Amino acid sequence: MRVLSGIQPTGQIHIGNYLGAIKQWLLLQEKNECFFFIADLHSLTIPYQPENLQKNILETAIVYLAAGINPEKSIFFVQSDIKEHTELCWLLNTVAPIGDLERMTQYKEKSRQFKKNINAGLLVYPVLQAADILLYKTEGVPVGKDQVQHIELARTIARKFNQRFGKTFVEPKAVLAKMGAKIMSLNNPKQKMSKSLESQSYISLFEEPGEIKRKVMSAVTDTGKQIKYNPGKKPGISNLLIIYSLFSEKPIKEVEKIFKGKGYAQFKKSLAELLINSLEPFRKKRKELLSREVYVRETLKLGAKRARAIAESTMHDVRQKIGLA
Ligand code: TYM
């Protein structure tokens, strides 16, 4: 299967991004043809500091490598290095239904969050995402639940394009983790864990042990005492149970058993320890990579070269189909 996914270089990559997306990538890269990229063009649609962008891209690249993306197995690159993403985005804009774009949850949320900057890029954001996916004839897109709507739209756009211009694109499918596709915020378990919210709400992949402990211990829990999985009635504890289960690789039922008769504080203390230990290798690898900036940049350059060859070939076909060549 051909697989592709990306992350925006906006803020700290957290355990939600890891459990929902990156963890799947690591498994998929073993047996599939994978493309993983940094979605820098998408990140321009919300307020940002141009002078920090290059640093954020490099830090995101370090996250990918520290988490275990292997550039010998996967094609790993920066979106803006491949001009074909924006070219295809424009062409797909001419087939994407505007009503569908206006209905996108993320568009509505971002328009609410950034009232003073509702730019056209926010609206066509999913079309650029469709271009990312379709350019490489992607079959599977491993993402968290919040991105499923965008992948569905990419399918619609592929279908419409194929109907009008002849079979060109593959209709992609979202690949979701069985558990962990929607990790909730620590201080508001009714809301998704998000890098654009306050740092108290998430644990970054490189979080220092002291901070992990502080954040887990102050995570919002529910009334009652039992450590029981019940997302409707106990969203806080249920979210922590999912995180515990995924990092310990023990089923939730088993975790419930371990903590039967024990209080929230004891459970949280164990979870903090588990996270400190599980994230330790990422912190170590990051330190090492921070001193190897040249290697990281070279890796991205090489990845771009490999990606470009495929992107150019698709665009050659697309230009002919559409009547531009
Ligand atoms: P981004 O940067 O918001 O998030 C990166 C990935 O992390 C997943 N994710 C979560 N999973 C579980 N629980 C959470 N709380 C959580 N928060 C985020 C996201 O679903 C995503 O998989 N539009 C994309 C980037 C993108 C892309 C693409 C993805 C651009 N082009 C093409 C796939 C294919 C985004 O903003 O991801």
Automatic annotation (TrEMBL):
Localization per record: Cytoplasm
UniProt short sequence motif 'HIGH' region, positions renumbered to this chain: 9-17
EC number: 6.1.1.2
Positions of L-tryptophan binding: D132
Keyword Oxidoreductase (UniProt): no
Any one annotated GO CC term: cytosol
Gene Ontology MF terms: ATP binding; tryptophan-tRNA ligase activity
Motif annotated as 'KMSKS' region, chain positions: 192-196
Catalytic activity entry: tRNA(Trp) + L-tryptophan + ATP = L-tryptophyl-tRNA(Trp) + AMP + diphosphate + H(+)
Entry binding sites for ATP: Q8, P9, T10, G16, N17, G144, K145, D146, I183, K192, M193, S194, K195, S196
A single GO BP: tryptophanyl-tRNA aminoacylation
InterPro entries xrefs: aa-tRNA-synth_I_CS (IPR001412), aa-tRNA-synth_Ic (IPR002305), Rossmann-like_a/b/a_fold (IPR014729), Trp-tRNA-ligase (IPR002306), Trp-tRNA-ligase_bac-type (IPR024109), Trp-tRNA_synthetase (IPR050203)
Keywords for the protein's UniProt record, in alphabetical order: Aminoacyl-tRNA synthetase, ATP-binding, Cytoplasm, Ligase, Nucleotide-binding, Protein biosynthesis
Coarse class of the protein's main subcellular location: cytoplasm
CDD domains, sorted: TrpRS_core
Subunit structure: Homodimer.
Family: Belongs to the class-I aminoacyl-tRNA synthetase family.
Purpose: Catalyzes the attachment of tryptophan to tRNA(Trp).
Protein name from the UniProt record: Tryptophan--tRNA ligase
Lineage: Bacteria, Candidatus Nealsoniibacteriota
Gene it is expressed from: trpS
